[in-house]
């Protein structure tokens, strides 16, 4: 039997095949890790992966192996999200949390409901994590409450681990809290101060109509002050020096003069000043 390097030929061939397969597997893992690290870096920096469609191989070593952005979105971003979820699970394990939630709209005018988890522990600084960003069919109490419960389940947290629920003062969010409180009676509601102050202002307007009318008239006096209007005219002249009045109209009166100033092609502001 022939021997190569002290080994039988058949065993030597088998060893070479194993080494080749291991090397191929290692290169594949390194390639996959490079793609994951690149996607993670772009997503963490809030840079669209669409930018990776531009040729970078000339400047960045190894960037020629990156797939197109469509493949990155469909295959790699979910994997990166799963890695972050697992890391957040470990950080939240055994800790009480506070839930922050709010609804917004994306560029497609879809309702996007965001849920944040903040830890409660003796550390001087608490960790705030974006736990979920879900597109809802409609912004209502039922959908929001279900999304909060689903998010807690995904991160292996119970509703009893939640000390407080923070949101705005919209009616459907208040109803959402009442739904969650029915499942956890010790849950606290914390509403943001701007919404509280807004409610206070509305309460004063309704409960104190005479005071509201007085404040309204005082504000109107300052709103029509000559100095205020002159400052606004100076602002327009500095910001839009290229815009010249295209039309000027004088009113036959001894105390009022009107002028129409074109700020741009789509907006006309009529300024009225007292002589």
The count of β-strands is: 9
* Order of the strands making up the biggest sheet: 5-4-3-6-7
Mean pLDDT: 78
Strand content: 15-25%
Number of helices: 7
- What is the alpha-carbon Rg in Å? 32 Å
Stretches with pLDDT under 50, minimum 5 residues? 246-275
Q: Assign an overall shape.
A: flat
Query: What structural class results from the helix and strand content?
Result: alpha/beta
Helix content: 40-55%
Protein name: CGG triplet repeat-binding protein 1
InterPro entries: RNaseH-like_sf
Biased composition (Basic and acidic residues): 8-23
Region (Disordered): 1-25
Task: Characterize the structure shown.
This protein is an alpha/beta fold and 275 residues long. 47% of the residues lie in helices and 21% in strands. It has seven helices and nine strands, in the order E-E-H-H-E-E-E-H-E-H-E-H-H-H-E-E. A five-stranded mixed sheet has the order 5-4-3-6-7. The protein has a two-stranded antiparallel sheet with strand order 1-2. Strand 1 and strand 2 form a beta hairpin. Helix 1 packs across helix 2 and helix 3 packs across helix 4. It is flat, with a radius of gyration of 32 Å. The chain starts with a strand and ends with a strand. The relative contact order is 0.05. The C terminus is likely disordered. This is CGG triplet repeat-binding protein 1. InterPro entries: RNaseH-like_sf (IPR012337). It comes from Frankliniella fusca.
